[in-house]
Amino acid sequence: MPVGLGLVLTSAVPIILFALLLFVVLAFGGVVLLSLALRYRAGTARRQGRRWVATVNVWMTSFSAVLFLFVAFLMSFWLGPTLQFALAGMAIGAVLGLLGLALTRWKVERQQLFYTPSRWLALIITFAITARIAYGWWHATHPRNGAPDQQHWLMTASATQFSLAVAGGLIGYYLIYAIGVRLRLRRHERSRSA
């Protein structure tokens, strides 16, 4: 191989690696944005209320909530007050779940119950997920300065604690929402049979 060609290839390798890394980062960002857009779209879709689906949602979300709280309790032995963050997140999520039930549009067509969740609450939930991703990135790229007791509680909270709060909020929201949908379907079935 001629010397000039070897020199050109060795100088082109860093450029190719940089271009490949840039492509991977942009592709990852695109996948994250696409998943957030699909999450919002699925959260605002009109659904037919089915009893078995609502029952499975209640049971599976309840199981998830119990398992989540158990794991948060175990983590609190090593990572500090993670259970408090998880419970606070679940409480906020429960309030949002009640608000979501109040803002849901319910419609009866041909003796079937249909419902459309609130677009604003779906946007808030999508924003919470986005904020958690952004906070994780920010927390990982910015070192802490100063004593922990002189900083705001949000700055001293670990990424794990904040993640548990957001996850607790999502689980609390979906648990209350699933229970509310199930109760609404039961009431609809009673009124239809009467």
Describe the structure.
This protein has two domains: 1-43; 45-193, no CATH class. Helix 2 (51-79) packs antiparallel against helix 3, helix 2 (51-79) packs antiparallel against helix 6 and helix 3 (82-103) packs parallel to helix 6 (159-193). The model is unreliable at 151-155 (pLDDT under 50). The protein has helices at 3-43, 51-79, 82-103, 119-141, 153-156, 159-193, and strands at residues 47-48, 105-109, 112-116. It is built from six helices and three strands, in the order αβααββααα. It has a three-stranded antiparallel beta sheet, with no helix packed on it. Strand 2 and strand 3 (112-116) form a beta hairpin. The chain is mainly alpha-helical and 194 residues long.
The helix/strand class is mainly alpha
Strand % is 5-15%
Q: In whole angstroms, how far apart are the ends?
A: 89 Å
Got a strand count?
3
Residues in helix, %: over 70%
The DSSP helix count reads 6
Q: What summary fits the major beta sheet?
A: 3 strands, antiparallel
**Major beta sheet, strand line-up:** 1-3-2
Supply Rg.
24 Å
Shape: globular
Structurally, how many domains make up the residues?
2
Taken in chain order, the helices and strands follow as: HEHHEEHHH
Low-confidence stretches: 151-155
Provide the residue-averaged pLDDT: 81
